[in-house]
Amino acid sequence: MPLERVCYDCGSRTTTPVARCDCGEPLWLATDPSALSTFDWDAVTDAPGMWRYAPLLPVDGVPADDAGLLHAAGGTPLLRTPALDDFAGARVHVKVEGEHPTGSFKDRGSALGVAAVAAGHAGDVSAVGTVSHGNMAMSTAAFAAAADLPCLVLVPADVPEARLEVVAQFDPTVRRVAGDYGRLYERTLDVGPDHGVAFLNSDVPLRTAGQKTTTLEICEAFATGADTASSATASTPASAPDAIVFPVSSGGHASAAWKALRELRESGVLDAADVPSLYLVQAAACAPIAEAFEADAEDVTPVEEDETIAYSIANPDPPSGKRALAAARDTGGAVLAVDDDAIRTAQRELATEAGLSVEAASAVALAGLQELTTRGTVDASDDVAVVATGTGLKEATGATVEAPTVDLADVDDELAAFGDAK
Ligand SMILES: *Cc1c(COP(=O)(O)O)cnc(C)c1O
Ligand SMILES: [Zn+2]
């Protein structure tokens, strides 16, 4: 079954398994129109994780019961966290993507991509690849291992050995590549299929199809009252949050969110007035999409990247930058940037107030929400889903450690002091 691909920008369609339109913009997969016309929350299947949305996914149904890791993608909790409301200035709901097997939302796109390749839906390919040395590399390698597909991971020449070890545990083929990493990203999309390799890079159609399930889950939780703590009364449940905040790098996840919202609108599940605004947040040290938004530009101009603790989202030349801009504008949202101090503060807040360890790149979303409420763009009464894209348990957090050593003989005194002080 060849999957039809559509350009969000010029509307061109193709069944050739390419990632880019002739106009240069990224393609996404057309969703079955008959599935769209009949979709509502009752149409979701009783399947594990993201596969409950099988009618809206380019798959022939739910993966078989013995599909292993595929069943562990999606289905992450959306937590109502009042303890963060004061800090954020709005009613916070945290989507905990760090619960995934490899610790980030990338597993949604990897699962869909690997399932599609294994089922022969991705053209004449029998292997997967990716251009990444972070979460995407780990995720693609893990899902490929579970599906017994060969996997090629291309990393920059100067990546530290320690970063590669976490990827290498899944035994992909790893090659360091000297040269421009952005050009390598596009080159692999062009040439991979000629050699039977489907490159599941950040914003390709298959990855985007899988990653739209983050947003479907958030909206379903509101619509069906699974998130019973939304501000609406029980008799008039909110059908969606007022806003969803994402950290953004390539723009792939944000594009997927936009696609999900367009599909919910098209199927009549969401009224135009109820579509949540998409707010996209970057680290100030590398914020090409936020700069383009501020400048009212139609497209993104590449920037020189500075160091940031949010290294997972430092992309100076985002391949879906223009599409992310369109996503924010179409939904009445915005793209903004926050500095490293604000990111650290938000990261600490998530840990100390909500018990959630997220990586710095993910804390960007909460820092961005705080900025939006300070500006008055988002109201205190708004229900806002903050997408915590990845776990912090894989990295050093910079938290101050105060742990003096006490002698066993002095532990009673220590407990007494702690008990008095608490
Ligand atoms: C990849 C990643 C992002 C950014 O997603 P894009 O689709 O590239 O915009 C954000 N947070 C984490 C933890 C990631 O791994
Ligand atoms: Zn186009």
Written description of the protein model:
With 422 residues, the protein is α/β, with parallel strands linked by helices. The protein has a domain at 73-103 and 205-388: Rossmann fold. 35% of the residues lie in helices and 14% in strands. It has helices spanning 33-38, 85-88, 106-118, 135-147, 161-168, 181-191, 205-211, 213-223, 252-266, 288-294, 321-330, 340-354, 360-375, 411-421, and strands spanning 5-7, 13-14, 27-29, 78-80, 91-96, 127-131, 151-156, 173-177, 197-199, 243-247, 277-283, 334-338, 383-388. Strands 4-5-13-10-11-12 form a 6-stranded mixed β-sheet, sandwiched between helices. Strands 8-7-6-9 form a 4-stranded parallel β-sheet. Helix 9 packs parallel to helix 11 (321-330) and helix 12 crosses helix 13 (360-375). The protein is globular, with a radius of gyration of 21 Å. It starts with a strand and ends with a helix.
Essential attributes:
single chain; 422 residues; Rossmann fold; six-stranded mixed β-sheet; binds pyridoxal-5'-phosphate; TrpB-like_PALP_sf; Ser/Thr_Dehydratase
